[in-house]
Amino acid sequence: MQRLLIVEDSKVVQQVLRHISAQYLDVAIDFAWSLSECKEFVSKHSYTLALVDLTLPDAPNGEVAKYTLLKGIPTVVLTSKMDEYKRLQMLELGVIDYVIKDNRDSYNYAIKLVAQLLRNQGCKALIADDSVLSRTLMKQMLEKQLFAVSEAHDGRQALDMLKNDAEIKLLMTDYAMPTMDGFELVKAVRNFRGRDDLAIIGLSGASKHGLSARFIKYGANDFLTKPFMNEEFHCRVLQTMEQLSLIADIKESAFRDHLTGLYNRRYFYQYAEKLLKNKNQKNSLVLLDIDFFKAINDEFGHDGGDQALKQVSNLIRTSFSNSTVARIGGEEFAIILTQVEVEQAEKCLNLFIQKFASYDFTISDKTLSITASIGLAEFQNTSLTAAMRVADRALYQAKEQGRNCVVLNSTLQLAEVTAIR
User: A Pfam family in this protein (predicted)?
Assistant: First the structure.
C-alpha cells in the first residue's frame, strides 16, 4: 500500500497542501511538523515517497531530506530559497526534484509531481543503449522516480522485449546502437504500440542537426541530448509520463457512465468483442434489469431514481469486483464473467439475487427494498449480437416468471440463435 510523508512546519502551507492533496491523491498521508516528528512517523510506517521542507526549526540545513534519503525514501524537497550551492547539494544527495515555494501554483505543482511519481511506482521502463555506463546512470535515475527498470544493449533486443511485454510504458532509446539504431527501433515499435500506450524518449550524444526532429517524426514523444542535467532528465520523463497519464484518464472517462461510475455501453461492446476473439474461452454474459424502476421514479422523482441507480451500481460492483460491469441502459446492467462455467455462474447469481432483494436501499431518507431480474447466457464462438439476443431472451423470461429471479439460456439455444442470423 502506498503511503506519503509530508514534512512542513508552516500551518498555512500545510493547510494548503492538505487541501490540494485531497483533490489529487488517493493514498495514506502523514503530516509532520518537524524532523523529530518525521522520525517518529518513519519508525512506525514504511513510506513510498516523502515531500519535505528544506528548512525546519529543528533541521535548518536540510537535515530532514538527508534523513529520509538515508532511510531509503525517495524525496522531493520544498524550499523558499534555492541558490546554486543548495541546488547542487540537494542533487548530490539524491533528491528527485525540488520545488520553490513562491505561490499557490508551486504547491499545486508539488502535489501533482508527487501524484505522478506515485503513479510511476511499479510502472515498467526500458532503456535501450549500447553503453553500460549510460544504462546504469539512467537506471539509477529512473528508479528514483519509482520505475521498475529493464535494460537492452541494442535496438533488436529492445524490440523483442517490447513485443513480449505490453506492460512496458516508457522506452528510452539511444540513437547510435548496433543491429538496429534508435530511429529504426522507434519506427518498428510504433507499428504495434501507439503514443497513447507507450512513451518514447530519444537520446543521442551526437551533434548532428535534426536528430531531435527526426526522432519525434518517427514516433518519439520527446528527445534528450547527452550529456543531460539530472533536473532536465527528471523533468522530461515526468512531463512525458504525465501526458501519458492524462491521455489514459481521458480514455477512462470516455468509457465511464457519468452517473454510476461503471463502464458504459461503448466500453462494454468493445471489451466483449475482444473476448469473442478468444475461441477457446467460455464466457458468461449477464443482463440485469431493476424491477419496476418506473415506480421508483414516479414516487421519488428522477433524483430518487438516480440515488437508486448509484446504490444498485455499488452493490453490483462490490459483488462482482473481479468481473467487468457496465451500465448499458437506463436501469439495465451487463456483467461479463470470464473463465467461469455457466452452471457455476448461475449459482453465484442466484445467491446474488437473494442478497439484492434483502438489501436496504435508502432513497430520500426512506428505506426501500428493490428486486432485479437476471438473464444469463454462455457465449463462445459466436457474435456479440447473438449472445446479447440470447441473454435478453433469458431476461424477458425472468420477468415473465414473476421477476426477482435468474433464468439461464443454454449453449444449445445460443447455437440455434446463431444459426438463424
Answer: Response_reg
